[in-house]
Structure formats: C-alpha cells, structure tokens
User: Fold these one by one.
Assistant:
Number 1:
Amino acid sequence: MEMQNAQPRARRKHRSLAQELVAELSQRIRDGHIKRGEKLPTESAIMEEQGVSRTVVREALSRLQAAGLVETRHGIGTFVLDTPSASGFRIDPATIVTLRDVLAILELRISLEVESAGMAAARRSDVQLKAIREALDAINDGAAHASDAVSSDFHFHLRIAEATGNRYFTDILSHLGTSIIPRTRVNSAGLARDDHTHYMARLEREHEQIFEAIARQDAEAARAAMRLHLTNSRERLRQAHEAAEAEALHG
C-alpha cells in the first residue's frame, strides 16, 4: 500500500512530526486505505514520501504498535492488526497525541468520572473498596520509588468505574486504556513547571480525597473530589498549552 498525495513536510520538532505521522497512519487504517492484515509501506518509503527521518518513522510505528493497531514482524515488516470495524462509536487512543487532544479527553473524563465516583460511593462493596485502596497504594508506592505509576493510576480510576456496577463506564475506560492518564502523552509536571515530587504529592492528596469519600459512601463528596482532581489536571495542561502556543508564536 503506497501512501498517496504525500508532500515533504517543513521541518518541525521531532515529537510533532511523529505525532502527525501517527495521526495520518491511524486515519488511513481507520478509513480502510491500509486494510487489516496488510503490510505498511517500508520505513524508507515513508521517510521519502513524508520527508521525515527514520527516527521519526520508528517512533510513530512504535506508538501505533503500543496502541494495538499494528504489529512488527522481524525481518518482514509492519502489518495492520485485525482491529474492530471503524463504524460506530470509536475513540482511537493512538490519536491522543497533542496537548489539545489530552485536554479534550480530560473534558470527556470529567463528564464520565464525576458521576462514576458518585455512583461508586453509593454502590461499592467492601471488596471493591479494597481493590480501589490497593490501586491507590500502588500509585503512592510508585511515586515513592520515583516510578511513573501510570498503570496503577489507570487502575485506580478503572476500579472506581467497576464499583459503579455499570459495565459501560468500565468499557469506555478499558478501551481508552492508560492513554487517559495525561503523563503518558505529555510531561505533566514539566509542563506545569512543577517539581516532580511536589506534583506527585498533590496528585496523591487528590486521589486520597476521592478514596475517602467513596469509603464513607458520601456520593456528593466523591463527585466533588473527582471533579476537583480532573479540573485541576485540565487547568494545569490548559495553562501549559497556552504557554506553548504563545512561545511558538513569538519564538
């Protein structure tokens, strides 16, 4: 499959080029221009057609592989996996690559997870509460050991969704996976010009407030704590996004 109508791009930052290539290849896969089971163009072909370096191509392919869209077979090439049909509702985690994308996902999460927290507080069992606590402890342990703890962060939110007893909350979070955690896409602490330890400590406090409200089965407090947590994340990233745009404009 050849990539058609490709024009060499003006040189921009490496990360930006990789993000654009991920979005473009993802769109071609979703639209069926590159079909399931079909081999992607070679690295050299993509480099020539897109005017990017081999490093950019490999980073983009790595992101597509992590998102479960493609697989690389050693010595053969990269192939599109047998992914679900693009028809119907679909959010492709591979396309959550820019600050604007992350902000949009946070807005979606606020609408979903505020209510999820309230329902979890009202409906959770002791076993489910224990699972939420274990996920929270894993986040805190990861922070203490300077680990990213992204997986534990995701599981904390997923366990809350499970405690609602409504499988659709769980299905949406499971589909999005760890891409819902902003620091998988951007350096949140760095963008907020914050010390990493201080940043993680603030996240820990926000998470603890959510857990405590769910533990005492206070639905309104759980909603408020989740809203505070997610709107704080959105505000930190919004300020960073505006600062980055201003720097690009005047840089």
Number 2:
Amino acid sequence: MKNKHYSQIDYPKNTKSFGLLSDGQEVLCYTLTNKKGMEVSIINYGATITSIKIPVEGKEKVDVVLGFDNLQSYIDSFELPSAPYFGAVIGRFAGRIKHGQFNLNDKTIHLNKNHGEHHLHGGTKGFSQQLWTVKKICEGDFPSITLTYISQNNEENYPGIFMVEVTYILTETNQVIVEYQGHCSEDTLVNLTQHSYFNLDGHKEDVTNQEITLFSEKAVATDDVNIPNGTFIEFKNTAFDFTNPKKVPTQNDTTITLSPNQKVAARLTSTKNKLKMTVLTDQPAVHVYVGGNCFGQLKGKENAAYHSKSGICFETQVYPDAPNHAGFPSAILKKGERYHHQTIFAFETIK
C-alpha cells in the first residue's frame, strides 16, 4: 500500500490519518489488536511505535510507551536539546560513531556529524525522520504491519542503496515481535534498533519505581563523551550489577554485552500494574537508556510532561562505534548479503 491521501471513508481498517508533512504527504497510524485486547499503534513516519496499550485487571488499558498525540510534535522533537527518538526505528547505525568516520574497503567514510564532533543514530536525518511505505498489513491471528524504506547511496554519506523492511507482529500471547530485513547495493554499515521508551506503570509515571534485571555481567567501557574505548567493564558486585532485580536507576546510558545465542537480554517489572516485560534478541548487545526529557518544550500524549526519568529504552543492537574496534562484532553488511535482526518485547501479567 503506497502512501497517498485518503478521504475519511476509504482508510484501511484500523487506520487513521496522523497528520501531513510539510510537502503535503500524509502520515498514517495503524493499530494492531489481538484477541486479548492489547493494542500496538504504528505510524509510517520513522516506522514509529506511538503506543502500546495493555489490559490490566481492574483498570483501563495502560499505555506503556512514551510518545506524542500528533505528527508535528514528533517532527519538533528532533529540535530539542537532546532528541528523544520516541518509538522510532534507528538507522543506518544505532548509537555513536567516533568523529563520524570509519574505514571500509581501505577507504575512509566521513559521515554527517550531528552529535558534536560525532555521528549519532544515523545522522542529521536518519531513518527515524523518514516517511516509510506501508508494504503489507495482516489481520486476524498474529496481526502485523510491514514498512519499507529505501536509503539512497550517500544518504548521510553511507555507501550503497540500502533497502530495509521492518515488520511489527503482535502475538496472541502479548508479544511485540520486531523483524528487520535488508540488503544493499554496496558494502555498507548497518545497525538497526527500536527506540521505544517503556514505562509499565503508564507513560505519565516515573520509571524509577519499577525494577530491571539485566542478563549480563559486562558492559562496553566508554570515554567521557560515552563513546566506546575498546575495553569492557565487569560489573558483578558493583552498583551497576543488575543480574538480580533492582530499582531502575535515575540515570543510565550503557551498552551491556550478551553471550552468543543468549536471547534473553533484560526484564522490566511493575508491581503497581502487575506487569513484566522481557526483552529477547539475536543481537550481541542491548543499550539501556533512562530518559525521555522534553525539557518543558513539548507535551507528550495526554498532555504528559516527560522528564529525564519518564522511560527506559532497551536498544538491541551491535556495539556502538563497532567499525572502529577490531574486537567488536561486525556491523558491516556486504553487497549481496541479507541483514536480519529480530527483537521481542514480551509482556506478561504477574500472578
């Protein structure tokens, strides 16, 4: 289904207009619903998750991700002192790349710098600020939506035409499965992630009242601007040891490493709403970030005033600055190879 303008009577089922871009192109919001009443809403601006609503016993559905009620706020959020990237797909490369450069095939690639002297989350206008095309919508059991984007050669100075596809699947057991696929016309760098901020108490609450468990004892060590220095930190028996459940910290911006074939990366638990979310992935790391601050300049959904402790991200990915460290897992996608990445956010009621 290509992007187009719809009249009020011919929107696809469970779809509504979410606003117009400055060039007049319409952004749509599509809602997936399973038989348990869980709802996941996605817009094709940034392939962004705008809400995840979960039935909670004795209460109305709880929206467990941060976001905005309108398109303009998503657009304006990229002008904040620190863009939050609420719910968006990040690409071509999630995280920081030192000095915005890396070597590929004996050539130095100079990416756009959008984070001081460094490159962050795909650059000046990464995948999170692009209009994606809705390719397919499936209803019934395991409802899903597939969105596509073609990143042109030299977009943000990345080499090659990269064709990417993201599918969101809502299962009947309240799992949100995120599937990424892609291929490129040339050797390039790819590291995609999903940037939702979770709060199981509800998107208006303080996330530090919840508990996290991180299934790792090691983190990527960084310099004073949070760029990897090529070493690792063992944090067993330190203040950052979350191998047993602890309250969500007031500040966190750390990449934890995962063992090969580990799958389970992290867990978030709310005693208030008796909910837990488990993060499963096939990636070698998850970047854990506490934040969501809109600096009093923008209001979130339902007039929420988001602050620095509003939500927590679990950005499943390859290590930041991977191409500049020989010992890190590779983020190079060769011409003719297929990129594939799966992450699952599994929600359960605590008995």
Number 3:
Amino acid sequence: MTDADGRPIVAELGRAETPEETWARKDAARTARRQHQTAFNLVIALIASLGIVLFLVAVVVRPDTQIADRTVDYQQVAKDADVPGVTLAAPPLPDGFSSNRADWSDKSGDGVDVWTVGFLTPDKQYIGLRQGVDANASWVANELEQKPATGSTTINGAEWTVYDRRDEGKDAGNDAYALVRTDGRYTFVLAGTADDASFRTLATAVSEQFADQ
C-alpha cells in the first residue's frame, strides 16, 4: 500500500515515513550492523588469543620430561672421564637408586675441580653428590649457601658434618639436608631432599669406596 505520492505506508505508523524517519531508520540499521560486526570481531579475537595461549602452554611452557626423567650411567661416565690422579666417587648403590646427572668440571668459581652426580632415591627424592678436589672451607660454604653446620654424625665408622635446614620448609630449597666429609684430597658434599636412610646409604657407599684410598 502506498500513499498519494507513491511512498510505501509503514504499518506501525499507518502512513508513509517522512524523509527524517527514513534516514533515522536506516542509520539505526547501520549502527546495529556495526555493533554486530564489532561483537563478532571481538569474539574472533578472543578465540585467536586463547589459541595462542594454549599453544604456548602446550609447546613452550611444558617441561621436557625426557630430559627430567633421563637416566645417566654415572659409573661409566666416571670411568670415561680423563682425570689423571683423581678417583671419582661412583659407588654402586642398591636397586631403586638412579642418576640423572654426572659431570666433571675443571676449576669451578672457587678454583676447585668438582665431580657432580645427581641421584634419585627409591622414593623419588634427590641427593646431589659433589666431590671437590683439594677443596677449601670457602668452597664448602659456597656449596651450602654459607649456612652453618648443625651437628655431626657417624655413619659406618666415618664422621660427617651435618647441615640440617629441614625446619625452613620450602625456603631450604634442594639443600634441605647435607652431609660433609673430607677424606684426604677429597671433600664430599651430599645435599638434597631425601630422608636420613637414603643419605646414610649414599654416605656409606662413598666411605666404603674410599676406605683404602
């Protein structure tokens, strides 16, 4: 239906639109389309951002479990090391113990040659063995973050100095408990998060290896 001028009659108005009403209607439609497009673009942007975050978490942030869980034949590494005149601590240990690190470092920051072995205990705790050659007191202090000794203990006839920081909780880090012993040219630092039984097992094995040195 049209009016006398041939313009369509709007049912809601019961008459034809005025030019101003036509402009307002079209402007409102344009505004609605822009708002819809903006909302659609926002959703697309959010989905893209979420995809990037998921990618980073899955690929970048995820730890490399193959490296973390690797097993190292520390005894073979000790045999292959070219260290004349030095016996490296590599005692056999009971089933359940494994190693995830073994390396020799010439002249650390304290000027001390160091043999390092990382051990995982049967209950998946950690003990790091560090053997300093011709080490001094400052090397031991630096290895244990300048913390004071808390006592001593005798294990299988060998005396070890104790550094017990377990009461510090998480602040103690990976060196919550440590045993230190000097035997001739070698100073051994055993430090980690394991229980007393695992420390005694490793300390006994080290002492027995060097008993006749």
Number 4:
Amino acid sequence: MSDTVQTSAPSGVQGGDGSTARIVIPEKHPMVTLLGATDSLLRVIERSFPDTDIHVRGNEVTATGNRADIALVKQLFSEMMLVLRTGQPLTEDAVERSIAMLKSGAQDPDGAVSPSAVFTQSILSNRGRTIRPKTVNQKTYVDAIDRHTITFGIGPAGTGKTYLAMAKAVQALQAKEVNRIILTRPAVEAGERLGFLPGTLYEKIDPYLRPLYDALHDMMDPDSIPRLMAAGTIEVAPLAYMRGRTLNDAFIILDEAQNTSPEQMKMFLTRLGFNSRVVVTGDTSQIDLPGSTRSGLKVVQEILAGVPDIHFSILTSTDVVRHKLVGRIVDAYERWDAENAEDADRAASDRSPRKTAPRGPRGHAPRQSHRTES
C-alpha cells in the first residue's frame, strides 16, 4: 500500500447534505502515531468537528456528517500523514493549528498553503531541537526573509517575529551567506530610567539586549557564543551604536523597532551595505516613546509601502505560539483599545466648540430691536 491516506468516495447519503467517508491508513504507520496516546489527537479532531461522527476500527476511520466537514476531515488526515512521513511527531497544538488552517483556507502570496508544508519547513536544528514556522503567516514571514533584502515583521508579543528572524540569521551565518550577525535594539525605558539603574553603561544597557542573548543560546552552542562575539562575528549593541557605520556582508536585526523615532529608523535603514539582509521587528501596540514622538515603525510603513525588495509581514494574535492564553490576552487588549478609541472620539466631538450667537460690546449679546418696519 502506498504511504498515503486511502479514502473511499462518499457513500450512504445521510439526508440533506450528509455523507459518509471511509479513510484507510497505511498499515506501516501505527494508529497511535496518528491518533495520539489514549486517543488525545482524535479527541482534538472530534472537538473541532462536533457535528461529525468519527469512528476508528483497526486502521480505518469512518466519518459521517455534512459534505464540507467530511472533505476537511479527509484532508486533515492526509496532511497528518504527510507530517508523519518526515519523522516528525504530531502534537495536539499542531493538529489544532492544522484544522484552523484548513477551515480558514489559509493562503500566502503563492496560493493555498497546506499544514504539512508549514510544519515540515525546517529553519535550524540545534541539540535535537528544530526551529520551524507554526502558522501560515509565520511561513510567509520566513519565506519573505529569503526573498527580500529588507523585511519587516510586525505583530503582537509571542508571534515569533524576533525568534524566527534570529533563526534565519544563524542559518545564514552557518551557510556562510553572511560573515556576521548584528543584533540591535533601541534602549528606550518602559517605566524605568536608565540613569537610575546601577552599574556601568554596558550593565545598564544589558537588560534591553538580554532577550537577544537568550534566543542566541537556544540556537547555538553556548560555549561558542563568547568566542564569536569576541571575534566580532556576532555583535549585540544598542541602536545608537549603529550611527555612521556601513554594514556589509551582514545579517542585521533591529528588534523592538516600535520604540525608534522616524529619524532613528531612517538612520538604521541607511546603514545597509552590500550583500546584507535586514529584518526589522516590532509591535506597534507596545510603544514606550514619549507621547509627542511618532513611532518610526508606524511612519516607515507609510514611506516604504510599495518599494521593491522591501516586504512587510503582518502577524496577528492567531500566530501567537506561546501559551494559548497569550493570544486571548492580545485579542482582549485590541478590543479594549478599539472601544476606548471610540469613546475618546466621541468625547472629543462633544468638546468641539459650538456655534454661538455673535456677542455685543463687553461680551453682551446684541440688543434686539422691537420696532417694526412701517
């Protein structure tokens, strides 16, 4: 039997739009790898298709329900089998995301994207752990980094925009596509003042750069990082240190770009040298700049929209790959911001000056004449 899911044509119409499909799983694949220990993956599928009856007997799965859901279930099992063929185990999270992709008909610029294409795209492997995209938007973002000289990754916390960019940078360095990695962030306070923090300038700045070090340790041998940094192969520095430089043969990442001013953003982008790639990441909902300062990340979207070889990847709460609660928190804050923006607009309109009758001398209303024309 071939290494693919075998399905029968729908049979036994169950009234209206109902149908039944029989899905045959190749015997070489144990059903436990497809359905999960104690049928945990099967329960995920059943919860996602509550109107579909799914029964398993031996290596056959029978699904009964409306035609649209049956088609999705058949496609889901095919995608799960394609993932298993790569030797990658299936998880509940992967199955949930696969179902969401199929239901939404997710697409990237090249057309429809299959869940297996997302989950089997490997960026980097280190110490038995593989870094890969987990959503269609993440795959689009990763592909854009390969295709464009400058890529912007914009989205809320937990969408992997910085982590995936770091993985692509390490991949490019290991493949000798670039000679060095430069990681930078603006040192903007989020409730604390740098001057009040203890220590030297480097010790004051270190907390702002620590997330970049943490990501590096996930992707490289920790013992090699100090050596590479000492040699200048990897540089982690605040954005102010980029002024006046030309960066050739480098993979450059600007993180937390929402906290740059328009002038800083222009300064950074014009550091680009030959054979270099730039990734700019940020979350425009978490701006820590003073109220009168516009975010360089917001302004640059207006200025560079449509410029060739520059790509803007927009990630959303559906791309959050941290705890599921993070996505719900992001959505809740977006709703709250939208509601408060409407309230602020209404309040501003209520405070707008109304037209009043012209005033006479010393602020008194002009006296009205009671004479009538003869």
